[in-house]
Amino acid sequence: MAGLTFFRTKKPEEIVRFYTEEVGMKIWLEQAGCTLLKHGNFLLGFCGSDEVDTQGVITFFYPDRSTVDEMYDKFRDIATGEPKDNERYNIYNFFAEDPEGRTIEFQTFLHPLEPYMGGVELLETRRSVRHYSEKGVPEALLWKIFETCRYSPTSKNTQSYYFLPIRDKYVQRSLANERSASSAPIGNAPMAVAICSDPEKSLRHVQDGVIAAYHFMLAAWGYGLGTCWIADMDRERVKEEMGVPMDHYVVTVTPLGYPQEFPTTPKRKEVEKFVKILGDNIT
Ligand SMILES: Cc1cc2nc3c(=O)[nH]c(=O)nc-3n(C[C@H](O)[C@H](O)[C@H](O)COP(=O)(O)O)c2cc1C
Fold it and tell me: In terms of pTM, does the model score above 0.70?
């Protein structure tokens, strides 16, 4: 389910150009006389008309202050003031005007948010986070993420995976030191979570665990939290440290916390490079 807001515009081409080229919205749908744009899951339609709708405020929000600052650098000339903290709403924001005089706002919320991203945005924006803010992960939030993980698929629905939250600083430090630089991100977060699986429950416990771990990482990202896959943690010393039975599989131990900064996207190959077409069976 979703929704959208329409505005009438006397200058459809200029307005669509402004919101796509300047603000960075994408065209979602072209209709006769209207263009529907999207920013994350925010849908906005502009329809050519003899009238102009300028009421209300069009607000774009971003995950951090630095992106709001970047938008301010871009829109300095049309901004009505510099970005600042607004204590009443616990946001950091500034206002500007679009070419027809609509008020637009660029902001970041300074408090945790309930998930708002659509599935595609979640999949496309998740990054490995290796540096974290000191702010702790609220217990209730952690349980919401685990609740989402109940829906992770498993072979024959055996649900052979389990999660081990690690808040003990001694254990966390020792896990961070296990593989030097590769495991160091575990020590940079307020907590860590081990994802394990039990071979007695399923022949496919490795796959079950790997999928559950990625499910956890995506759910955490949806709640604004960062994670990082740390490989090769299925080790005796790691299991001893965490009290995990030696025959169980440690899929990964991920750091968990609020990202200190949002990492840029590492280079990805073009889609044609990893989809191999056999014959002409895909049209
Ligand atoms: C199987 C696997 C093993 C990984 N092992 C590590 C690791 O030991 N330490 C680490 O910092 N990152 C590790 N990563 C994270 C990758 O470096 C990261 O996913 C990749 O560079 C792409 O970046 P992104 O996750 O931000 O898109 C691992 C990722 C995967 C999928």
Answer: yes
The count of structural domains within the chain is 2
Contact residues for 32 (Cβ-Cβ < 8 A; gap 6+): none
Last residue in a domain, options 109, 140, 163: 109
Report how far apart, in Å, the C-alpha atoms of 242 and of each of 57, 165, 188 are: 51, 10, 18
To test the ligand 1 pocket, which listed residue (128, 249, 262) has its Cβ within 8 A of the most ligand atoms? Answer: 128
pLDDT, mean of residues 199-223: 98
182 lines ligand 1 (CB under 6 A): yes
Instruction: Give domain status of residue 86, yes or no.
Output: yes
Is the CB of 263 inside a 6 Å radius of any atom of ligand 1?
Answer: yes
Asked whether residue 265 is assigned to any structural domain, the reply reads: no
Q: Domain of 174: which CATH number? A: 3.40.109.10
pLDDT for residue 181? 98
Q: What is the pLDDT of residues 160-197, one digit of tens each?
A: 999 999 999 999 999 999 999 999 999 999 999 999 99
230 lines ligand 1 (CB under 6 A): yes
The enclosing H or E element of 235 equals none
Rg (CA), the chain: 23
